[in-house]
């Protein structure tokens, strides 16, 4: 933004965990990537002690060489790099949870603990699979590489894997496609990736304009960020395919601004899409579908990324990729994590912090984080869960929301607090701002609340209402629960 | 997807802002033909001119017989451009503009905003490919930025739950650097910021309640979440010594 660079200078030979930093590989909008090699001396590291945050048991053996991505999340500049922390968190979260052959692999995530180097102290370091280069670098050498169609099929496969798992990339472009030693492509740079919540995901308000669909160019932005859908990646894929196959952007113009302008005119219907005449007919059909001017048309053309992938693989003449197992069975599979992630991302200037668990339980009361209160959409702690560490005056808006309660009642609750909090009960109300609504106003308990649950109490709720606000109180009064 | 907003003059019956997308044209003049902007005054030509949104800026054609139009930058300390009669497609580079038309001894005016002016960082060496850019671009020299900084100030100064300042507090805070600040100009800037940052109206705005409070609150959340204003930006609120000590 406005000339501020987030490049992180790291001296050669610097040690982070088991890794020794070598030469710089790239510097992007949000951080810097360095080559690194593993040092297995087992001894004390002099500088750059690090604490591991990934806690990922399934990472397997570490390779000898890796790429370290430094994200400047340090505390040297308090309250200043909030969004960078969020972006670092997004990437780390996605890589921790998704492992697919066409997505770059993360081995571990570290946090630099080095007060001697305040500019590095607190930085997030993602230890990633080492790639040979990027598609952008390949296109610099050869505008229309011979391997183009095969690479496009692999990129599309990566998108499919991502979408299939319920994520949107949000920043697909040549610089974010990495090429491995064997020449295969993998998607990387998930700082803008967002997990789907129903039909939308909320992405940070960043984009690369040349790859941004017209409906997002100047779209409205809410406090949660920008709403994006998988069709945004489909548009970006269309732009990228045109670039790889013809060496030029699909929309006319000598500058990014001119091309965005052309995209807007095209979306308004004021101008037709004129793709390069050098495009083979099959690819022209694919790219025309990807570059349909609205989300609806793109969604109609390719109802899911699998249908696009089938067509791309057909045209590229590559073998069909295997059918993916269902990764995201039902909406309730990881709601605890999803809610936690969204809330952590949104916990702007709030005292709440969310415990992130890599492989916690996905159902039942026990997924409720310690020192939190959790509300569930089904009895016995099943179904979707919303959890809070603090109070919330409005569940349906503000920095933390619990959107399923808009049309579904809360069926069970767990107050997973402990003595250290000094507040033993959680009172909940049917109105915003801890106010009663409807029959609660004349409720006999004279406290005008819908209910109150004492510390460590859990149980099912009767009735078919959803509270709209809750707060921690000293105690519920008579009885453990009402 | 609009890039230019035309604000009709007050008292012309149309209070609706007209939003133009890139390539769209808007004629203005005395006659009310089509979707143009009608300026009902005898001294204005029937078809006085035309505004075309072009990328993030706009171009003005003066279609009058003999009147020179002036486009002022209201925040630009007298900065203006003149568009001679018959001149077509004169580019206007101001974010805020007031188009002044002389008409039989009177001066009529309407405003045009170009909230999509883009600012991008210079290309950094060693970086191939297109840069990921933030969706917002704010001009730090504009008054709206000072208003946004003043809105965010309590939280940036270390009170994370502080409510945003009231409009009166904002006027007071901004007075050092902007002596003419008043309630309505501050309100105007808050509204403009909501347009500029493309703030999605909060779902609860339909309900009774302090609406402006919600807007200020949303602006602060958005600005802090995306680091649009940081602690070091608060210098825009610092008083500039008006006199040099001799």
From TrEMBL, chain A:
- E.C. number(s) listed in UniProt: 2.7.11.1
- Is the keyword Kinase assigned to this protein? yes
Q: Where is the Protein kinase domain?
A: 19-324
The record ties this protein, via PROSITE patterns, to:
PROTEIN_KINASE_DOM
Q: Which residues cross the membrane?
A: none
Q: What class of enzyme is it?
A: transferase
Could you confirm whether the keyword Cell inner membrane appears in this record?
A: no
Q: Which UniProt keywords apply?
A: ATP-binding, Kinase, Nucleotide-binding, Transferase
* Stored Gene3D superfamilies: Phosphorylase Kinase, domain 1 (3.30.200.20), Transferase(Phosphotransferase) domain 1 (1.10.510.10)
**Pfam families (UniProt xref):** Inhibitor_I36, Pkinase
Q: Which GO terms describe its molecular function?
A: ATP binding; protein serine/threonine kinase activity
As recorded in UniProt, coiled-coil segments are: none
- What is the recorded name of this protein? non-specific serine/threonine protein kinase
| UniProt source species | Streptomyces flaveus
The root-end lineage is: Bacteria, Bacillati, Actinomycetota, Actinomycetes, Kitasatosporales
UniProtKB/TrEMBL annotation, chain B:
Q: What is the lineage of its organism?
A: Bacteria, Bacillati, Actinomycetota, Actinomycetes, Kitasatosporales
Write the protein's name: FHA domain-containing protein
């Amino acid at each position: 933004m406005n000339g501020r660079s987030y490049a992180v200078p790291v001296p050669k030979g610097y040690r982070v965990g088991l890794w020794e930093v070598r030469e710089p590989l790239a510097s992007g909008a949000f951080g810097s990537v360095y080559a690194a090699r593993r040092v297995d001396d087992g001894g004390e590291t002099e500088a750059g002690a690090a604490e591991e945050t990934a806690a990922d048991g399934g990472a397997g053996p570490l390779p000898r060489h890796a790429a370290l991505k430094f994200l400047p999340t340090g505390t040297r500049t308090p309250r200043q790099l909030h969004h960078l922390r969020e972006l670092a968190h997004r990437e780390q979260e996605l890589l921790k949870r998704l492992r697919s052959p066409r997505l770059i692999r993360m081995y571990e995530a570290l946090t630099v603990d080095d007060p001697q180097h305040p500019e590095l102290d607190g930085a997030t370091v993602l230890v990633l699979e080492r790639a040979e280069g990027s598609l952008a670098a390949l296109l610099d050498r050869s505008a229309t590489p011979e391997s183009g169609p095969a690479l496009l099929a692999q990129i599309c496969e990566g998108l499919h894997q991502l979408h299939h798992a319920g994520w949107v990339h949000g920043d697909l472009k040549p610089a974010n496609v990495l090429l491995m030693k064997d020449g295969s492509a993998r998607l990387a740079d998930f700082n803008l990736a967002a997990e789907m919540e129903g039909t939308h995901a909320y992405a940070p308000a960043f984009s690369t304009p040349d790859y941004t669909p017209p409906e997002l160019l100047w779209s409205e932005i809410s406090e949660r960020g920008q709403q994006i859908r998988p069709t945004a990646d489909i548009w970006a894929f269309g732009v990228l395919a045109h670039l790889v196959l013809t060496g030029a952007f699909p929309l006319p113009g000598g500058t990014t601004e001119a091309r965005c302008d052309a995209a807007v005119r095209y979306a308004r219907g004021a101008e037709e899409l004129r793709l390069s005449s050098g495009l083979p007919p099959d690819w022209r059909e694919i790219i025309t579908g990807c570059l349909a001017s609205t989300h609806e048309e793109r969604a109609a053309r390719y109802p899911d990324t699998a249908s696009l992938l089938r067509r791309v693989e057909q045209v590229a003449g590559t073998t069909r990729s295997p059918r993916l197992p269902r990764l995201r069975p039902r909406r309730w599979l990881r709601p605890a994590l999803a809610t936690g992630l969204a809330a952590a991302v949104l916990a702007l200037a709030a005292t709440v912090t969310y415990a992130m668990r890599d492989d916690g339980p996905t159902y039942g009361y026990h997924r409720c984080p310690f020192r939190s209160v959790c509300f569930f959409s089904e009895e016995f702690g099943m179904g979707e869960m919303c959890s809070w560490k603090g109070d919330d005056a409005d569940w349906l808006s503000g920095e933390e929301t619990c959107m399923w309660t808009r049309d579904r009642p809360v069926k069970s609750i767990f107050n997973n607090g402990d003595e250290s909090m000094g507040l033993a009960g959680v009172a909940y109300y049917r109105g915003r701002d801890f106010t009663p609504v409807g029959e609660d106003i004349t409720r006999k308990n004279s406290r005008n609340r819908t209910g109150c649950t004492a510390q460590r109490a859990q149980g099912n709720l009767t009735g078919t209402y959803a509270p709209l606000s809750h707060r921690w109180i000293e105690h519920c009064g008579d009885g453990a629960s009402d | 997807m609009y890039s230019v907003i035309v604000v009709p003059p007050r008292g012309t019956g149309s209070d609706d802002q007209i939003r133009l997308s890139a390539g769209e044209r808007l004629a203005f003049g005395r006659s009310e033909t089509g979707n143009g902007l009608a300026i009902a005054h005898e001294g204005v030509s029937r078809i006085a001119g035309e505004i075309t949104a072009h990328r993030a800026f706009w171009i003005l054609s003066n279609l009058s017989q003999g009147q020179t139009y002036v486009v002022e930058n209201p925040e630009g300390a007298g900065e203006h451009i003149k568009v001679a009669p018959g001149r077509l497609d004169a580019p206007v580079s101001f974010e805020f503009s007031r188009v002044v038309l002389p008409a039989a001894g009177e001066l009529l005016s309407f405003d045009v905003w170009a909230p999509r002016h883009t600012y991008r960082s210079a290309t950094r060496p060693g970086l191939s490919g297109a840069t990921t850019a933030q969706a917002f671009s704010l001009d730090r020299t504009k008054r709206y930025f000072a208003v946004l900084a003043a809105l965010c100030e309590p939280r940036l100064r270390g009170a994370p739950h502080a409510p945003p300042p009231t409009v009166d507090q904002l006027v007071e805070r901004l007075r050092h650097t902007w002596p003419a600040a008043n309630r309505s100009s501050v309100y105007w800037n808050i509204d403009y910021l909501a347009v500029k940052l493309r703030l999605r109206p909060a779902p609860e705005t339909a309900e009774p309640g302090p609406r402006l409070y919600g807007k200020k609150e949303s602006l602060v959340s958005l600005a802090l979440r995306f680091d649009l204003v940081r602690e070091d930006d608060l210098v825009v609120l610092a008083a500039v010594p008006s006199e040099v000590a001799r």
